[in-house]
Amino acid sequence: MTITPLTPAIGVEVTGQPGRRLLDLDAAEELRTALDAHGVVVCREAGLEDGELVALSRMFGEVVIAKGSTEEYPEVQIISLDPARSRLASYQQGTFSWHIDGATDATPQKATFLVARQVSDEGGDTEFANTYAAYAALTEAQRKELDGLRVLHTFKAAQLLANPNPSDAQLAAWERVPTREHPLVWTRRDGRKSLLIGATTDHVIGMAPAESRALLDRLLQWSTQPRLVLRHHWRPGDLVIWDNTGMLHRALPYRPTSPRLMHRTTLVGDEAVV
Predict the structure, then answer these.
(1) Which of 156-165, 218-227, 243-252 has the lowest mean pLDDT?
(2) Could you read off the pLDDT of 21-53 as tens digits, one per residue?
(3) Which region, left, alpha or beta, applies to residue 124 given φ > 0 means left and ψ of -120 to 50 means alpha?
(4) Nearest-CA neighbor of 188 among 241, 106, 245, 118?
(5) How do residues 112-134 score in pLDDT, each as one tens digit?
(6) Nearest C-alpha neighbor of 27 from the set 44, 36, 37, 15
(7) Contact 152, 203 (CB under 8 A)
(8) How many Å apart are CA 212 and CA 201, to the nearest integer?
(9) Is 164 exposed, middle or buried (0-12, 13-18, 19+ CB in 10 A)?
């Protein structure tokens, strides 16, 4: 197995290892090490079947039982804008904005595994941004400005970016999803710090609305500057694994009629936000 950094700040590509060989214990351990160090691991044309995807995911941790899953594997979620393929298709345009999965949970999902079954002929790339590196690159004065700040995360905030004129029924459905207050800076058990930002950020607690939005927008722009971002152009069979807690991600827009079809597993979070 050869592991090659893709940028100085984020991502590696794995070559020299056929897809099924990724399930070897030694290979999986190398993938985990690369994921911890670089945030995103790209395995080109790995071609894992759903059962293999679930098996590999379990080698990294407990796998979430997914909504909108395949019939055979309840852990495998179907990602598509086609409602005939995914019952969650109406929410998928919300993934066009920078976000982490599970930001409205006390313990966001640990990591995500995404396999391309079919790809889009226009759009549909996925971008990742390293918020560990974004925090580390702030000045000491900027870090002090963020000390103690807390942010309300809501599903509604993310969906409004994709659909700013919802129906009453849509709005009511979004508002039924529980909200969550998190620190703006997430400090891990090992001392690492990242910015907990993205589409779900509704407002900074106790801050005037205009000031709150300006700060959140500024931090998002800082975290998604080109040197901290990796853009992945999908090929059929590609597997990408990322640290969901420290990497923002988004899909670049693609048409609802696109054949793009992805299968995803996620790992249960193992560290609550405090």
Answers:
(1) 156-165
(2) 999 999 999 999 999 999 999 999 999 999 999
(3) left
(4) 245
(5) 999 999 999 899 999 999 999 99
(6) 15
(7) yes
(8) 10
(9) exposed
143 within 8 A of 186, measured Cβ to Cβ? no
Token readout for 53 is 């995807």
- Please provide the size of the chain in residues: 274
Q: What are the residues facing 79 on neighbouring strands?
A: 262
Contact (CB, 8 A) for 234 and 124? yes
179: CB partners within 8 A, 6+ apart: 104, 152, 153, 154, 155, 202
What is the amino acid identity at position 152? L
Mean pLDDT of all residues in 227-249: 97
What are the φ/ψ torsions at residue 157 (nearest 5 degrees)?
-60, -40
In the predicted model, is pLDDT for residue 20 greater than 90?
no
The model's pTM: 0.95
Q: Which residue is listed with tokens 């029924």?
A: 169
Residue with the two structure tokens 């975290």: 223
Helical ranges in the chain per DSSP H: 25-38, 50-58, 131-136, 140-146, 155-162, 168-175, 209-223
CA 88 to chain centre: 17
Residue 265: beta bridge partners?
Answer: 113
**Tokens 């226009």 belong to residue:** 122
By the 8 A CB rule, do 265 and 139 touch? no
Q: Are 152 and 273 in contact (CB under 8 A)?
A: no
CA distance 196 to 187: 10
